[in-house]
Amino acid sequence: MHGSLGELGAKFLDALFIVGDNSSRVSPWYEIKQEPVKPTIHGMRDLLARFNQLTALSKYNAVLKTMPVVKLNQWALEGNALDTASMIDLSPSKRYAITLAVIRQRLACVTDDLCHIFCKQMSRVSHLAEEKLQKYLQDSQGKTDEILRRYALLDKVLNSTEPDKIQLQTI
Question: Rounded to whole angstroms, what are the CA distances from 156 to 105, 147, 149?
């Protein structure tokens, strides 16, 4: 795992376990593991920000493509249970594998939440559009009936045996 990441990838992932100078005194690892808020249309901006953050962190997830999904799920479960200090104590290869598995899992959850919100909104829009279409059709029924009546009358006149001059005057 360590070899396929390269030195740049290893440094990138190791930086997730450094507690910065922020007032909360937590590492980015802690923030990655946080459960997202309940997906709502109002929380969509937060979900999109989290999606962008996790997408940026997932740039080394290609390393995991050869790993079985069962193993990745096991690593993600393990990673969700470990704090920053415990992660630092792991061997680098295992730490990187677990880190990438957790990032992969969190990104999948956020993507699912965003898709769920999108589908819900599209369903709402579709329902509203259907209601408006039915109202328009109902409101326009009189006009439609009049147009069809006139067309039927026109068709009757044009298909009659009367001379063209009389047909034109009737129209």
Answer: 70, 14, 11
Cα Rg of the chain, angstroms: 32
CB atoms within 10 A of CB 129: 10
pLDDT of residue 3: 62
Distance CA 153, CA 171 (A): 9
Q: Where are the domains of the chain?
A: 2-128, 130-170
pLDDT digits (tens, 9 = 90+) for 22-49: 666 778 888 888 877 777 777 888 888 8
Cβ count within 10 A of residue 57: 21
| Contact by Cβ (8 Å): 1, 65 | no
CA pair distance 50, 53, nearest whole angstrom = 5
3-state helix, strand, coil in the chain (%, to 5): 80, 0, 20
Q: How far is CA 101 from CA 60, 86, 98, in A?
A: 11, 16, 5
Whether 37 contacts 109, CB under 8 Å: no
CB atoms within 10 A of CB 13: 23
Q: Do the Cβ atoms of 29 and 81 come closer than 8 Å?
A: no
